[in-house]
Design brief:
By secondary structure, the chain is an alpha/beta fold. The protein has two domains: about 230 residues, Isopropylmalate Dehydrogenase, CATH 3.40.718; about 130 residues, Isopropylmalate Dehydrogenase. The chain is about 40% helix and about 15% strand. It has a ten-stranded mixed sheet, sandwiched between helices. β11 and β12 form a beta hairpin. α1 crosses α9 and α5 runs parallel beside α6. The longest helix is centred in the middle third of the chain and has 17 residues. The radius of gyration is 20 Å and the shape is globular. The chain binds nicotinamide-adenine-dinucleotide (NAD). The site of nicotinamide-adenine-dinucleotide (NAD) has 19 residues, from loops.
Length: about 375
């Protein structure tokens, strides 16, 4: 059976890293048919809109998509295409695994946690306005509903059970935000009571940041609201080795879309310099979602061995600040070719080289939804 998947190359480094993921997908032998649609700057040029209808139509039809990052103008200009896609397709669960790859680029070689972020409401609802004509005061509304809080907390506990992760931490700021924070907190507590087999605890967002930097190994699944989850997932990407290696997935009730945590990194656009690993690990998550577990294991293993060997890695994995074994930097396309070359050769059952701690579930971001 051929899988028809929507592919959105995106802006900046997006076309390069999505091309890398396609190359690796071809190496798995899993039959894909890519429906390529433009969003962001390319779509403004060709169709006059950053989010033309054919993008949403294609994702609705195929129910599965892989996407590169899309630039959002800062402070003015069009609304975030990323936020619009999530809201219009009701992709409510943003899942961002933070796994150290081969113990490289991190003080915490065993770090393996998952941030589950509500992705349709909160402070990203787009409800904001200037209070006065002179623009000296402004308001952004933090929309929190019981329905969205219940379903994201349920998603997090279900994921913890499925992946045999025994611990879920609910993150909020209910001491200060006594309506929105308390609503999310109540939803979390009531959902936790339905999962007695999972350890549940809570942290205030500020304390959570400090705890993660000091002892990330004590956390497993973190569930929180939109903006807090956005910030925490970048923090966790940093713990696990950086934005270049941090994949992400968005799930609705019937649609899944895979995109890296990183943005379009405009300063590296067109230079064949960006790290393709995050987008290639998005492909791994996509394969797991399709139930193509063996191909997903091969992709994960090929990434791991490439990062471990350090013969062909991009600048971010080669720098002295990242590794105690600095090496010359390779290009995005060369690293992608190296990972693709390894895919059919690796032995997914062999112990992972260079592992210094036993992650609770390496590569076990399995299929969370019925397809
Ligand atoms: P960014 O993630 O694009 O870049 C931050 C820095 O991280 C880069 O300068 C680079 O040093 C590094 N980096 C990121 N990805 C990398 C990769 N694959 N390989 C190597 N280094 C990498 O964040 P930003 O500069 O804050 O945002 C740029 C644009 O991307 C903005 O318009 C923002 O809105 C957008 N953005 C989009 C998404 C998305 O599409 N989901 C996510 C985040 C940011």
């Amino acid at each position: 059976m051929t899988y028809r998947v929507t592919l959105v190359p995106g802006d900046g480094i997006g076309p390069e890293v999505t091309q890398a993921a396609r190359l690796v997908a071809d190496a798995t032998g899993v039959p894909f048919e890519w429906e390529v649609v433009e969003a962001g700057e390319a779509a403004i040029k060709s169709k006059g809109s950053p989010l033309p209808d054919d993008v949403l139509d294609s994702i609705r039809r195929n129910k599965i998509a892989i996407k590169g990052p899309i630039t959002t103008p800062i402070g003015s200009g069009f609304r975030s295409v990323n936020v619009a896609i999530r809201q219009q397709l009701d992709l409510y669960a943003s899942v961002r695994p933070a796994r150290a790859i081969a113990g490289e680029g991190t003080r915490y070689p065993g770090v393996n946690l998952v941030v589950v972020r509500e992705a349709t409401e909160g402070l990203y609802s787009g409800v904001e306005h200037w209070v006065d004509r002179d623009h000296t005061a402004a308001e952004t509304v933090n929309v929190i509903t019981r329905k969205a809080s219940d379903r994201i907390c349920k998603f997090a506990f279900d994921l913890a059970v499925r992946q045999k992760r025994g611990h879920v931490t609910g993150v909020h700021k209910a001491n200060i935000m006594k309506t929105t924070g308390a609503l999310f907190q109540t939803a979390f507590r009531e959902m936790a009571a339905k999962y007695p087999q999972v350890r549940a605890d809570e942290r205030l967002i500020d304390n959570m940041c400090m705890q993660l930097v000091k002892k990330p190994d004590e956390y497993d699944v973190i569930v929180t609201t939109n903006l807090m989850g956005d910030i925490l997932s970048d923090l966790c990407a940093g713990l696990a080795g950086g934005l270049g290696v941090a994949p992400g997935a968005l799930y609705g009730d019937s649609i899944a879309m895979f995109e890296p945590v990183h943005g379009s990194a405009p300063k590296y656009a067109g230079q064949d310099k960006a790290d393709p690993v995050a987008e290639i690990l998005c492909l791994e998550l996509l394969l797991r979602h399709l139930g193509e577990t063996q191909a997903a294991d091969r992709v994960f293993r090929a990434v791991w061995e490439t990062v471990y060997e350090k013969k062909v890695v991009t600048y971010d994995l080669a720098l002295p600040g990242y590794t105690d074994r600095p090496v010359p930097a390779s290009t995005c396309s060369a690293m992608a070719r190296e990972i693709a070359r390894k895919v059919p050769l690796v032995d997914p059952s062999a112990p992972l080289p260079g592992i210094t701690a036993a992650p609770s579930s390496v590569g076990a971001i399995d299929k969370p939804l019925e397809t």
